[in-house]
Amino acid sequence: MAERCDVLVIGAGPAGLAAAAAAAGQGVDVMLLDAQPRAGGQVWRHDIAHRAPRRARHALRRVAAVKRHFGIRVVDADASARMLRVEDALHAREFGWDRLILATGARELCLPFPGGTLPGVTGAGGLQALVKQGWPVSGKRVVVAGSGPLLLAAAASLRAHRARVLAIVEQAARHDVHAFARALWRWPDKLAQAVQLRARLLGVPIHYGAVVRAARGDGTLCGVEIDSAGVSVELACDHLAAGFGLVPDAGFGRLLGCELTAATQPAIRVDALQRTSVESVFAAGECCGIGGMDKARIEGAIAGHAAVGDESVARALFAARDRARRFADAVAHTFTLDPRTRTLADGETTVCRCEDVTLDALRAFHDARAAKLATRCGMGACQGRICGAALAELFGWSWHGHPRQPLFPARLASLADESLARRSCP
Amino acid sequence: MNGMVHLRIDDVAVEVAEGASVAAAIARVTPRFRLSRSGRPRGPLCGMGVCFECRVTIGGEAHALACMTPVREGMQVRTGG
Amino acid sequence: MPAYDLIVAGAGIVGAACALAAAEEGLRVAVVEPGPIGGGATAAGMGHLVAMDESPAEFALARYSLPWWEAWAEEAAAEFRRCGTLWVADDETGMVSLQARFARFAAADVACERLDAAALREAEPELAHDLAGGLRVPGDAVVYPPQVTRLMLDRVNARGGALLHRRKVVALENGGARLDDGTRLAGPVLVACGCDTPALLPELAIRPRRGHLVVTDRYPDWLHHQVVETGYAASAHGDADESVACNVQPRPGGQLLVGSSREYGRTGNAVSMSLLARMLRRCFRFLPGLARCKALRAWTGFRPATSDGLPCIGAVPSRRNVWVAAGHEGLGVTTAPGTARLFVDLLLGRAPRLDPAPYAPLRGMT
């Protein structure tokens, strides 16, 4: 039997927590689901060695009474039946909703470069996430590379876990980043955060206008070559944490049939009240456009209030959301990817990590479907979540056609369950 | 949350803090989690359950995500699959 | 107007095989394909090379075709692997069907061996322990069809053939073809458009028959043969509007392809979770451990089906210089090489080595 609720929130990061808190405040039956074993999403990911930030603790307290199921993966969803199938470590189970709020967040954009598949090379947020769950970095030499504010946050986390951060390699030009910093007075809380972050990174050299040329190592990472404003620099290191910004995780929205934006990295399209094109389905946070934590929290609150019919409360938050979105636009503008970041890979560089497909093997094709059929690019376990985003940047390929179940790899038993079959008879 | 958990990674005994991920436990033994389709070593990339590069066998379950699985006492983990 | 000895509409495996056979005869060939190479039924199926014997004519075409596949065994990109087929039965009805199949194979000199329950378990330890028996056909194999199709077209190209990619034949006229960009090509036209064939040849009753497949993560050495329940076509699929049967293939990379289902009258490509669930439960009956394997994705595809289950191969009556090779349903990969030889013999006015009558395009329709 499916467990039913009034408002089902997918994702327990800042947006999902805000949505759940806003909806639950109205006495309706709210449920919160997340793939991670603990609440917090990525930005407030539980850190086994450090206390959660104050705002995270506050957000978690506000949903203390909300029913939740964590450590689940979504298998399938049906917007017309308003049903969702998930599996946990042992079982498949179903949840029914009256209103659904998607707060599925973002993934890192991992662009291919030579040596990028060596063990020891991770995403920037990727290493930060691993470290919070106990990955040992104490005394390890780490280079943080790619683009965006996440590099500084990741470097600060790594330092807090006693890693030796050798350098931050930022592709954006120094003058762009400095112009951005000078404009931060318009967002005083952001300015305070930036100052605090820089203090935590005192002594860490930041290379602007710089990219990773190659990760080096025989079997595991031992160093990186960076191009710092035209000068080649070799650094011996144990970890390279490289992320080129974030892309919306719109896959669940796609599965439900929600309209997406036409961007290179599509997001779930929402209206002013965070409603998607599908009846009774809302979306909030990074999955409807990358914009950071403040935007996510406000959008989550708007979605939560709107979902329970509190439109006036939701509308009162529009001004704050506009302000957060302006900040997001400034960040996006500052850290726009330089064309150089799309040409780091050479012909031998692995682009599809699941099927070991190189850049050379893909060049012969003019679209994703033809390339997939011939090379199996994007058809492995990650289902194109990594290489699809990269190829959208490199070749402008639109990656996703028709959504295919399961949304995440799932036991065949979870697809074969009878109750699911009953409800989806066409 | 200050307890320690004991598990075996490829028959090597490992002790990690409660709440740690299996990925963190494996990292104490080897950076190589799995072999790619053409036999090259791989380790975690995304740390959040989307890249599937950290797949290992946990308690007999093949293709389990090490970064998404919290350690439990007595766990048996196999890498290199 | 550019002239060719043969214009092939459709670069699926049947069109590509026909183009290659014609090019090998020294004909000047053009292949016209609007979508990806091998992107229709060719990509949707399993790539099982199987001595299928649901009807004498089907069996004849399969046996005629299979020897040509040996030439692809050494071509790495074809991913040819001789895994053999293991037909399995779970009850007495299945055993009767298995026995009949054995008799047909023996009479046609198809190498095979009967396995009792114990031998079955030894051959495939993951099979359910209460099955009635099996029949092993060691010569059957698998390939990766979209890639084989590309390789065939490369060979056509090497022999001077032309691939008009991202062009579509929109009309058959005056002993030639008109393309979507207005280009006219002169020469005999072979329509090999699978499910889209009736768009050019409405007189042909080829209907799309939808099927589901699931692919899993890699489980090397978990399964060794393609395991097919013996009632696959006769009792399980037959003429019913909707049916399922166990058909599981170990891919060379360790993945498992899990099928199968058949439905008429479905047009969308959305996965039917109800039919998928039925199909998987049927597979668990034979391979219970599958339930724990992880599915990466499920998809649907359309097989070009005719009412008698046989393809249409030959000249289209009442049309000048128009030929067809389509309607192979789920057996187009296996039978593409034989289809190609049969077609080329007919095109060149030679006596074919296989009786073409059962595949006559308008049989039973006039």
Please characterize this protein's 3D structure.
The complex is a heterotrimer of chains A (426), B (81) and C (366). In chain A, strands 1, 2, 3, 4, 5, 6 and 17 form a seven-stranded mixed sheet that branches. Chain A has a five-stranded parallel sheet with strand order 8-15-9-10-11, with helices on one face. A three-stranded antiparallel sheet of chain A has the order 12-13-14, with no helix packed on it. By secondary structure, chain A is α/β, with parallel strands linked by helices. The two termini of chain A are 20 Å apart. Chain A has helices at residues 14-24, 54-62, 124-132, 149-160, 174-182, 188-200, 251-256, 292-307, 311-315, 318-334, 359-362, 368-375, 387-395, 412-415, 418-423; strands at 3-10, 30-34, 67-70, 73-78, 83-87, 92-102, 106-108, 121-122, 141-146, 164-170, 206-207, 210-216, 223-228, 231-236, 239-243, 246-248, 281-283, 350-352, 357-358, 410-411. In chain A, helix 3 (124-132) packs parallel to helix 4 and helix 8 packs antiparallel against helix 10. Chain A folds into three domains: 3-106 and 247-332, FAD/NAD(P)-binding domain, CATH 3.50.50.60; 112-243, FAD/NAD(P)-binding domain (3-Layer(bba) Sandwich); 339-395, no CATH class. The radius of gyration of chain A is 21 Å and the shape is globular. Chain B is mostly beta strands. Chain B has a single domain, classed as Beta-grasp domain (Ubiquitin-like (UB roll), Roll). Helix content of chain B is 7%, strand content 35%. Chain B has one helix at residues 22-27; strands at residues 4-9, 12-17, 34-35, 41-42, 55-58, 61-65, 76-78. In chain B, strand 3 and strand 4 (41-42) form a beta hairpin. The model of chain B has no long low-confidence stretch (mean pLDDT 96). Chain C has 366 residues and is α/β, with parallel strands linked by helices. Chain C folds into two domains: 6-45 and 145-205 and 308-359, FAD/NAD(P)-binding domain, CATH 3.50.50.60; 85-138 and 207-305, D-Amino Acid Oxidase, Chain A, domain 2 (2-Layer Sandwich), CATH 3.30.9.10. In chain C, 29% of the residues lie in helices and 28% in strands. Chain C has helices at 13-24, 41-44, 56-69, 92-107, 117-123, 145-158, 197-200, 232-237, 273-286, 332-347, and strands spanning 6-9, 29-33, 48-49, 85-89, 113-115, 133-137, 141-142, 162-165, 169-173, 176-179, 184-186, 189-191, 207-218, 226-229, 242-250, 255-264, 294-305, 312-315, 322-326. In chain C, helix 1 (13-24) runs parallel beside helix 10. The longest helix of chain C has 16 residues, at 92-107. The radius of gyration of chain C is 20 Å and the shape is globular. The A-B interface holds A 35-37, 42, 46, 48-49, 71, 73, 107-108, 110, 117-123, 125-130, 133-136, 219-221, 249, 353-356, 380-382, 385-386, 408-409 and B 1, 16-21, 23-25, 27-28, 31-33, 36-38, 40-53, 55, 63, 67-68, 70.
